[in-house]
Amino acid sequence: SSGLESSSSSSSSMIDGQIIIPFFLEGGRFTINNVHYVADGTELIPAADTPFAEDASFGFTKSNLLEYVEEKTGGRYARDR
């Protein structure tokens, strides 16, 4: 487990999880309403519709981050969970 100790002084419980922070300003990446986009000029393209999604090692087919996590975990973390 890669748990983190709570930063709250009133709690010493462990947190077991991961944080996904889908933001990369310099790369023109934004997340709006759970959908990750890549800026192309003034247009926002869903990330799964860009060449980044076709990467041989890190490719993906979902732009919605709930679906992306489900896809990348092989369903271990379901979208509706």
Please provide a brief summary of the model:
The protein is mainly beta and about 80 residues long. The protein contains one helix and five strands.
Description:
The protein is built from 1 helix and 5 strands. The strands form 2 sheets. It has a 3-stranded antiparallel beta sheet with strand order 3-4-5, with no helix packed on it. Strands 1-2 form a two-stranded antiparallel ribbon. It is mostly beta strands and 81 residues long. Helix content is 10%, strand content 22%. The two termini are 20 Å apart.
Rough outline: globular
Mean pLDDT: 84
Biggest sheet architecture: 3 strands, antiparallel
Helix/sheet category: mainly beta
The tally of helices reads 1
The percentage of residues in β strands lies in 15-25%
Strand order of the largest sheet: 3-4-5
Provide the gyration radius in Å.
Answer: 16 Å
Number of strands: 5
Helix and strand string, N-terminal first?
A: EEEEEH
Catalogue the unreliable spans.
none
In which range does the helix fraction lie? under 10%
Kindly report how far apart the N and C termini lie.
20 Å
